[in-house]
Amino acid sequence: MRLPTRHLLSAAVASTLLTGCFSGTSAEGDGDGSRIRLAMMQPPRSGLSPLSDDAFKLSRWSTAETLVKLDEDGDARPALATKWRQSGRTWTFDIRGGVTFHDGTKLDAEAVVRSLTRAATASPKPRILDGVDLRAAEAHGDTVTVTTADEDPLVPQRLSSPQLSILAAKAYRGKTVNPVGAGTGPFELVSVDGTSAATLDRYDAYWGGRAKSPGIDVRFVPDGTARAAALRSGEADIVEAVPVSQAALLDQDLITEVPMPRTNTLYLNTAKGPFKDASLRAAAREAVDAESIVNGVYEGRADVAEGLLGPALPWAAGLRRPVTRTKATRPSGETITIGTFTDRTELPEVAAALQQQLQKAGFKVKLEVREYANIESDALAGAFDAFILSRATVLDSGDPAAYLYSDFASDGSFNISQLADPAVDRALKKAGATGTGTARRKAVVAAEAAVLTTDAAVPMLHERVIQGDAAGVTGAAHDPRERELVTADTYVK
Fold it and tell me: What is the structure's pLDDT at 278?
């Protein structure tokens, strides 16, 4: 097969980009295999604080754990809590016995309340608690009560979010939360080298049984070509988020393609600039040719979006109904600035394709592309007319209502579109208050429709993650929710 020129050019510079990412070889341990060399896409944004999106790194490394975990269907299952029960606005959780933190201290009700209280009173709050007034208290013995201002059927699912990980008291001694040596998982985080690397060792006293690997050596490699090269050269054992452009260069037996609840969306600024005008937002929507982006940028390894919720949530398509939108106005040369980031290799290419499509429609388009850590604050502050984001839609609670609230509620913490629409707020609150099951799913789809009616967001495509596992890797997780990667059962032969 003849490869496109851009693939060959990327491969040619890979060795240069890879320099310094990994050094030496995987050291043998005293377990079933070698230490796991892991190439991660995004460096820490907040010093690995669990109150930020860095929490998902701690979860993927199996170092920090939560009271509850989710099964494949998104239902709550025991983790650090063994069971729970609801009484109105209050849920009572029984805390697992025989669990110790990595510093040797005991997991108890006091530790759980400390962690949950720190998260609930943080500013800003963890995304999973958007719109939720949550209070934790010791009950009796090893039980904890969690009470919300309004009756919340999703409390167990919320407590599965890695942003609500339970850490030892030592983690909370400073102004920021420091997870080093403070988790309960099979691997102990022993050191962090800024945004370059992290080291984890097996925690032999883990309550769930001894891990099969002696440890994990993490390198943060934002450049996708370098990550793929690390797998190809044997310098990494597990590589997350292999770029589509690199997939054809790899041994197909080493990559796994996983449909994800992740949507590539064009967020439009509804508060100021040209897209304050709903008819111009409609014009932008009509100008977007998502199919050409899927075929040209993602080489067919993605699905054209019909809504914000994709094929990873198959029930959404069956409940979705046509949406009534504002009629488009022909643009007359309005200048717009689109922001996006380099951490996901395809996004700059998506931005370039959108620039051409929107210019053809009559807009003048400028692009601003940076690393995510350097652009997130500007995006959240509404500094751009539009922003391209690859967004996980069930990242936190396993339920899309939390994502929809975070991104589109008037007081949502991730409201890049600056949307403040009473009808959307009502639909989002109804979805959040509806009990689990079919009724909740219908309310979620109705909330999605309310958002789409505003054209505050133009869903373009649903991604599939490509993960690379070296031939000797056994038991690596392929998790659509991006919560697991290396588990206690993962090792390198």
Answer: 98
CA gap 315, 433 in Å, rounded: 19
Q: How far apart are CA 212 and CA 444, in angstroms?
A: 40
CB 399 within 8 A of CB 406: no
Say if residues 183 and 167 touch (Cβ distance below 8 Å).
yes
**Does domain 68-171 match CATH 3.90.76.10?**
yes
Residues in contact with 273: Cβ distance below 8 Å, sequence separation at least 6, in sequence order:
336, 385
Q: Measuring CA to CA, which residue among 289, 205, 213, 280 is closest to residue 489?
A: 213
Closest CA to 111 of 189, 182, 166: 166
CA distances from 170 to 67, 104, 105, 112, 114 (A): 19, 11, 10, 13, 11
For residue 297, give the 3-state DSSP assignment.
coil
Question: What is the SS3 assignment for 292?
Answer: helix
Give me the chain's average pLDDT, please.
Answer: 91
**Taking a C-beta distance cutoff of 8 angstroms, is the pair 398, 158 a contact?**
no
Tell how many helices (H) and how many strands (E) occur in the chain.
Answer: 14, 19
| C-alpha separations of 355 from 337, 339, 367 in Å | 10, 11, 8
pLDDT at 98 over 60: yes
Dump pLDDT digits (tens) for 168-223. Answer: 999 999 889 999 999 999 999 999 999 999 999 999 999 999 999 999 999 999 99
d(CA 71, CA 24): 37
Which part of the chain is CATH 3.90.76.10?
68-171
- Per the listing, tokens 């050019």 go with 9
Distance CA 372, CA 390 (A): 11
pLDDT (0 to 100) of residue 311 = 86
Q: Is the pLDDT of residue 321 over 80?
A: yes
d(CA 247, CA 255): 8
Q: Is the CB of residue 159 less than 8 Å from the CB of residue 396?
A: no
Query: What is the pLDDT, as a whole number, of residue 313?
Result: 87
465: which strand partners?
A: 258
- Choose the weakest-confidence range: 22-31, 159-168, 247-256, 350-359: 22-31
Specify whether domain 7-63+185-237+470-492 bears CATH 3.30.530: no
pLDDT digits (tens, 9 = 90+) for 18-28: 545 555 444 44
Task: Tell me yes or no: is domain 260-464 CATH 3.10.105.10.
Answer: yes
Please report where in the chains the tokens 């769930």 appear, as a residue: 208
Q: CATH 3.40.190 in the chain: give the residue spans.
A: 7-63+185-237+470-492
